[in-house]
Amino acid sequence: MATLDEWTEQACAALGLERATLDQAMVLDLAREVAHGVARPAAPLAAYLVGVAVGRGTDAAAAAATISGLSRSWPGPDGEQSGR
Q: What's the distance, Cα to Cα, between the start and end of the chain in Å?
């Protein structure tokens, strides 16, 4: 985790973002949920879409909850909802 924390600090600084505004656990949990509930390539796309929504004024937790809900309702390979 030290590498991830260090990289996050550097990435935030490079983008001119306050590190305190990032809920790292929320983003990682969202990516994990989408990767397992939908498809691995959907995880970074979901994170990006949440970021765009937040940039347009949506609350980060609300945006993540919306995408998490969508992921949980996504049909799995057998046609059943993932239920995660």
A: 25
